[in-house]
Amino acid sequence: GGSHTKTLFNKFDGAGVYLCDDSPEIIGNEFTNSHSGLSIGSPSSPYVGSFIISGNVIRDGVGRDVNFTTVQGIELYAPNSVVASNQIYRNAGAGISVVGKNIIVSNNNIYDNGQYGSGEAGIACLRIGSNPWEDCSNSTFVGNFSGNVSGAYQTYGYQENSASILGVTVSPSNQFINNAIAPVNILSLTTKY
C-alpha cells in the first residue's frame, strides 16, 4: 500500500498490478498474458480511491487463476477514479469491471474480451455491497468502443448486475456493437442511456 504511487511506461508479461493505494497513477503501460485474475486491480477497501488509469494496453489475459477468478482487464473497487483511453482486448474475462462510486470510464477501446467463455461484458458496472467502494452508482461511461471485432466473445458492450445501482450515465457517444447477446444489459431504472 501507500499513497500516490506511479506506475508509468512499463511492460508486464504474465503479471499485473494490484494496488491498495490512494490516488495512484497507472499510465502508458503494456500488460500481456496476465495469469493473476486481472491486469490492473484494487481491493475492496475504504482506503482505496482516486485511481488514474490511462493510456495502457491490456491484452491476452489468460484463463483463470488459482482462485478460479477469470482474468479481467481492469477490476476496480476505487471510488472517484478515472479509466480513460486504454486499449483492452482478448482477455479471458471482462474488459473493465467497476465497483466504486463516481468512476468515469471514457474513450477506451474494449473488444473481444470474455475469451474464456465465461459470459463476460466489455464494461461491467457492479454492486456487491452497500459501501461506496462496493457499488458503481453515480459513475459515467462516455465515448467508449465496446464490442467484438473477431469473434463473438463479449456478451454485452455494457452490463449491470443490480437494479439497486443508482444514477449511472451511459452516454449515447459509446459504441456497443457486435456483442454476442445485445449492446447493453441495464437493470437499474435510474440509469440514463
**Strand line-up in the sheet with most strands:** 2-6-9-12-15-18-21
Strand content: 35-45%
Mean pLDDT across residues: 91
Distance separating the two termini: 37 Å
Give the helix/strand class: mainly beta
Largest sheet: 7 strands, parallel
Strand runs, count: 22
Give descriptors for this structure.
single chain; 193 residues; mainly beta; 7-stranded parallel sheet; 35% strand; globular
Quick summary:
By secondary structure, the protein is mainly β. It has strands at 2-3, 6-8, 11-13, 17-18, 21-22, 25-27, 30-32, 38-41, 52-54, 57-59, 72-76, 82-84, 87-89, 96-98, 104-106, 109-111, 123-125, 140-142, 145-147, 156-160, 169-170, 182-185.
Overview of this structure, please?
- The chain starts with a strand and ends in an 8-residue tail after the last strand.
- The chain has no helices and 22 strands.
- The protein has about 190 residues and is an all-beta fold.
- About 0% of the residues lie in helices and about 35% in strands.
- The chain has strands at about 1-5, 5-10, 10-15, 15-20, 20, 25, 30, 40, 50-55, 55-60, 70-75, 80-85, 85-90, 95-100, 105, 110, 125, 140, 145, 155-160, 170, 180-185.
- The strands form 4 sheets. The chain has a 7-stranded parallel β-sheet, with no helix packed on it. A 7-stranded parallel β-sheet has the order 4-8-11-14-17-20-22, with no helix packed on it.
- The mean pLDDT is about 90.
